[in-house]
Amino acid sequence: MHSQHFIAFRSSRFHYSSWGTGSRILFAFHGYGESAGSFSFLEEALGSDFTIIAPDLPFHGATQWAEDRLFLDPHDFLALLEEIAAGFPGREAGWWLMGYSMGGRVALQLLEFAPQRVQRLVMLAPDGLKVNPWYWLGTQSRAGNQLFRWTMKKPGWLFFLLRTGNKLRLVNPSLYKFAAYYINDDRLRQDLYTRWTTMRGFRPRLDVIAGFIRERQIPVFLLYGSYDRIIPSGRGERFRQRTAPYCRLTLLAAGHQLLQPKFIEVITNALYLPII
Predict the structure, then answer these.
(1) β-strand partners of 4
(2) Are strands 95-100 and 247-252 parallel, antiparallel or unpaired?
(3) Spatial contact of 249 and 236, defined as CB atoms under 8 Å apart
(4) For residues 22 and 227, what is the distance between their CA atoms, to the nearest angstrom?
(5) Are 171 and 232 in contact (CB under 8 A)?
(6) Distance between CA 97 and CA 166 in Å, rounded?
(7) What's the confidence (pLDDT) of residue 186?
(8) d(CA 174, CA 22)
(9) Which of 110, 117, 96, 121 has its CA nearest to residue 221?
């Protein structure tokens, strides 16, 4: 059963979708440029055991972001999820977390701030396991953010660097196509600036998170596409080694897009199988 909801957040309204009637709460966080609906196909396989709750992040889906500051505080977001969970009485107190791509960074941050809440973490091609130097430059310093904003308005120099790097084979062709797609359109460039800047507060500290996983023995499943050039599996392998034996990594014959019905068995196993 699919339901759509809105919840007030200061001057804004967060939209979230829910599926299923199970006693376990599964919070699912979508990737860049996607929405809560990306998780709809999970209901048939998981809906009897889980209540799947997927919020639209700022500047995504139907969430209406109207704050003066272009910044979502992770602590505020955690409090919002607590309020959402309270609207589903009779569910277990612990949460299962799932994050795809950018949503992986969100899930990691929530585990850092509320490890006592987390029963299991499932991440698909997650962002957040390595600091992206371009993301850091564009969001974590005033000068870098100003350069980022100016570049999104006047991207000529960045186009030149990308084309040159592609011709000299210094830039992976897949990454070149990915970057060119977003930079070649005025609206997509503006979306990139607002979305990255709004989520800049999500900076998971991997050493702290790894410590919580080992201390609390939290099962973690990592799913990667073996052909993914955007977020390669090497990042996950290093994290798996840091969190052994409580982390398992699985490679799929796919690229970056892992939220597909054909992978439902693997995703389901990640939520049910014992880790050790």
Answers:
(1) 17
(2) unpaired
(3) yes
(4) 34
(5) no
(6) 37
(7) 81
(8) 40
(9) 121
Q: Is 92 helix (H, G, I), strand (E, B) or coil?
A: coil
Query: Cis peptide before 89, with omega less than 30 degrees from 0?
Result: no
How far CA 206 is from CA of 134, 141, 148, 166, in Å, comes to: 19, 21, 26, 32
Rounded Cα–Cα distance for residues 153 and 223 (Å): 36
Q: What does the block give as tokens for 177? A: 């196509």
Q: Where do we find the tokens 């309020």?
A: 83
The Cα 15–Cα 184 span in angstroms is 29
pLDDT digits (tens, 9 = 90+) for 150-200: 766 776 666 677 777 777 776 667 667 767 777 777 888 888 889 988 999
DSSP state of 276: -
The pair of structure tokens assigned to 22 is 């199970």
User: How many Cβ atoms from other residues are within 10 Å of residue 124's Cβ?
Assistant: 28
The model carries a pTM of 0.90
Which conformational region is residue 203 in: left (phi greater than 0), alpha (psi within -120 to 50 degrees), or beta?
Answer: beta
Alpha helix stretches (DSSP H) within 114-172: 133-139, 142-153, 156-167
Alpha-carbon Rg of the chain, whole angstroms?
19
In this prediction, residue 137 carries a pLDDT of 59
CA atoms within 13 A on the CB side of 26: 30
Rounded Cα gap, residues 29 and 97, in angstroms: 8
What span, in angstroms and rounded, lies between the C-alpha atoms of 195 and 239?
26
Q: Which two tokens stand for residue 128?
A: 């957040």
